[in-house]
Amino acid sequence: MSTEKKRNKKKNRTIMRSVILLLLVAAIGYTIYNSVTADEVEVLKVGDPAPDFTLTDLDGETHKLSDYKGQGVFLNFWGTWCEPCIKEMPAMANQYEVYEDQGVQILAVNIAQSNFEVETFARQYGLNFPIVIDRDKSVMTAYNIRPLPTTMLVNPQGEIQRIVTGEMTEQDIAGFMEEIKPE
Amino acid sequence: MDKLICKCGHENPPGTILCESCGRPLNEQEQSKKLADMRYEGTARRSQTYNKSIIDKIWNFFSSVKIGVGIIVVLLVAAAVGTILPQKQYVPAATDADIEAYYTDIYGSVGTVYHALGFHDLYNSFWFIGLVGMLAISLIIASLDRFVPLYKSLKNQRVLRHSSFMRKQRILAEGPGEADTLKKAEEKLAELKYKVSTDKNGLLAEKGRFSRWGPYINHIGLIIFLFGVMLRMMPGFYVDETLWIREGETRAIPDAPGYVLESKGFTLETYTGEGEEEKFGEAIDRVGTVAKNYQTDVVLYKIPEGALPGDTADMEVVEEHAIRVNQPFKFDGYALYQMDFQQDELKTMSFALQNKETGESRGDLTIDLVNPETTYELEDGSVVELLGYYPDFSGFENGEPQTATPLPKNPGFLVKMTTPDTPDGETSFITIQNTVEPLGDNEYKLAFQGVETRDASGLTVRKDRTLPILGLGGLIFMIGVAQGMYFNHRRFWIQQQADGSILLAGHTNKNWFGLKKDLDQVTEHASLPAYRDQQEDMEAQEKGEGEQLT
């Protein structure tokens, strides 16, 4: 065998082996990546389009997320049993007064509670934004909400700008609304 | 490394034991052996051939069977360690932080280390998946490295082998032959379904070569199986979720977009021990109750194509179904299993509006704990107004009643009672244990009358699109096993020298008895010289020597 042929064979061998190894390592890497990220709350990721939904508020009015395109939507999932949810509600109401005119909409999604509980709560805290009830938890499931409160910040393009889990201060809320406010 | 040039002139890759062409032993060790090492036909394992670049070194690492076995041992040990403490799904904690704290609290520093190393969620820990992946690499590379040279060698094998190769085979016959011996042997071997090829003064008869591919087919099956397991991690391939649903509730099915489930009722039946069920009497006496049936009656709805989550107006009934243990409800690739239940959760509470002094009742009211109303009007004009409802009352904070969960486990009510006697109304806060009258003594009270309860069903939602792949992998695995176990690769080499003498060698990868039976028939038909089993001879000799020593 000539030396050139030999060198070619060696080169081919190295390429072949590198390709096989690379493929296998890539498959394993992808599997590990998937298993590590699978457990996290955010199956929806920042930048994903926010799943559309339609829910009815306490006044019987229907709210469809896609109808708010062009506005920022502050989508807050909550329940009356959740302490931090209750605490951030008045702050949300305050900031809503500031940002409503600037094109930021709050939708508070209650998780499958009764009309009575939600109405009483809204009256007691003087809440000025629409509260919708997710009676069969389908929106909660679509957004894969685990801990409460979770707030999805949807930008005017209808994409998820930020996912916040846990209690927010009034300062946080103002900052987030600033983020999703239309230009 | 240089190529090994055999006496016959053939160039063999470095590491070869038996010449690829004529079969002569190529190293001293092999020459000194009485029987040839026929594993992989004496070819060089490819990885031994080259060992220069870093890629070659990695390749050689995975090609080693020792490494493969080592990885399997490590995996077994890890899996065993993973059973010492409970896995995270069996731990009574929900969030990651709680789970971590649980291991530390209950098992001390051992638990901390256990959790830190990922043993609490072994099958999802990156190093365990990494090891399984390495095992897959090892399977693929070790197989490639052995299969390719073996395949080439068997494909290109020559009819005429050197006499030193033949004499080192376990089955050997030497002796005089007739002029038509080869012809007759060929006839008989062909009759026994051997593939016979001839060359000059020799013949090669071969049967069942495909049996040699058994281990590689088997490995392909394993790789497909591992691939299927890997797919489970991809979104959409595998769903394993829990859905708690209470009687009367309607819930979206997790990870099954568009499907909504309503629970019509949960039933737990037990054996009575009477009549036809008398045979269970003894067991019932011993353990108290014996369950006969766990069942959830459900209605499955589908949200029409294009409708949005939350839009329940146009839901269509797909099917009404009774889910029983081991009889899952299957639809559209999903299966709902009856897994758990919770009985007697509060559903409604009934009260009587009573005068505290006289005990006289002004009427009854029933509060639906799932969907309470604002006012309850009694017959004589009395009104009970619900001011606040706290399904799982947990105390006061800043004077406000709190609820711990949305479930009516410990309901608390803030009510205003108005009767013709007390037109201004009286306020009372009622829980199961006691009644508080925050605005002074009342004339009337709500006296507890009774409750209605409902059951909750714990269902498992499962979808597994990897099952066909796992099944295919398992099937191929079994085909490989059968191929390697129940079929043998048998070969005979026969040569007739110029003086008419016959040299015969036989080899099989297993089942030497079967090979000998074939050879017996050929020997009889073609009057071949008697053969010997050189390995048995050697064993007999060793045994003989051993006996002489003792």
Q: What's the short story on this structure?
A:
The complex is a heterodimer of chains A (183) and B (550). Chain A is an alpha/beta fold and 183 residues long. Chain A contains 5 helices and 7 strands; from the N terminus they run αβββαβαβαββα.
| Unreliable residue runs of chain A | none
Quaternary status: heterodimer
Structural class of the secondary elements of chain B? alpha+beta
Number of strands of chain A: 7
Secondary-structure blueprint:
The complex is a heterodimer of chains A (183) and B (550).
Chain A: H1 3-38, E1 54-56, E2 62-64, E3 72-78, H2 83-99, E4 104-111, H3 115-125, E5 131-134, H4 138-142, E6 150-154, E7 160-165, H5 170-180
Chain B: E1 4-5, E2 11-12, H1 28-32, H2 46-49, H3 54-63, H4 65-81, H5 96-116, H6 126-155, H7 163-167, E3 171-176, H8 181-191, E4 195-199, E5 202-207, H9 214-231, E6 238-246, E7 250-252, E8 259-270, H10 281-287, E9 291-302, E10 316-324, E11 329-331, E12 334-355, E13 361-368, E14 375-377, E15 383-390, E16 393-397, E17 400-403, E18 412-418, E19 426-430, E20 435-436, E21 444-464, H11 467-486, E22 490-496, E23 501-508, H12 512-526, E24 531-533, H13 534-549
Antiparallel strand pairs in B: 1-2, 3-23, 3-24, 4-5, 5-22, 6-21, 7-8, 8-9, 9-10, 11-12, 12-13, 12-21, 14-15, 15-18, 16-17, 18-19, 19-20, 22-23
Overview of this protein structure:
The complex is a heterodimer of chains A (183) and B (550). Chain A is α/β, with parallel strands linked by helices and 183 residues long. Chain A folds into 2 domains: 1-39; 54-180, 3-Layer(aba) Sandwich (Glutaredoxin). Chain A has 5 helices and 7 strands, in the order H-E-E-E-H-E-H-E-H-E-E-H. The N and C termini of chain A lie far apart (72 Å). In chain B, helix 3 (54-63) packs across helix 6 (126-155). Chain B has helices at residues 28-32, 46-49, 54-63, 65-81, 96-116, 126-155, 163-167, 181-191, 214-231, 281-287, 467-486, 512-526, 534-549, and strands at residues 4-5, 11-12, 171-176, 195-199, 202-207, 238-246, 250-252, 259-270, 291-302, 316-324, 329-331, 334-355, 361-368, 375-377, 383-390, 393-397, 400-403, 412-418, 426-430, 435-436, 444-464, 490-496, 501-508, 531-533. The longest helix of chain B is centred in the first third of the chain and has 30 residues, at 126-155. Chain B has 5 domains: 1-38, no CATH class; 45-155; 168-208 and 488-549, Kinase associated domain 1, KA1 (TATA-Binding Protein, 2-Layer Sandwich); 238-343 and 458-463, no CATH class; 347-453, no CATH class. Chain B is 33% helix and 31% strand. Chain B has a 6-stranded antiparallel beta sheet with strand order 4-5-22-23-3-24. In chain B, strands 6, 11, 12, 13 and 21 form a 5-stranded antiparallel beta sheet that branches. A 5-stranded antiparallel beta sheet of chain B has the order 14-15-18-19-20, with no helix packed on it. Chain B has 550 residues and is of the alpha+beta class. Chains A and B meet through helix 1, helix 3 and helix 4 of A and helix 3, helix 6, strand 7 and strand 15 of B. Chain B: One of its GO terms (biological process) is cytochrome complex assembly. Chain B: Its main location: membrane. Chain B: It is found in: Membrane. Chain B: This is Cytochrome C biogenesis protein. Chain B: Residues 540-550 have a biased composition (Basic and acidic residues).
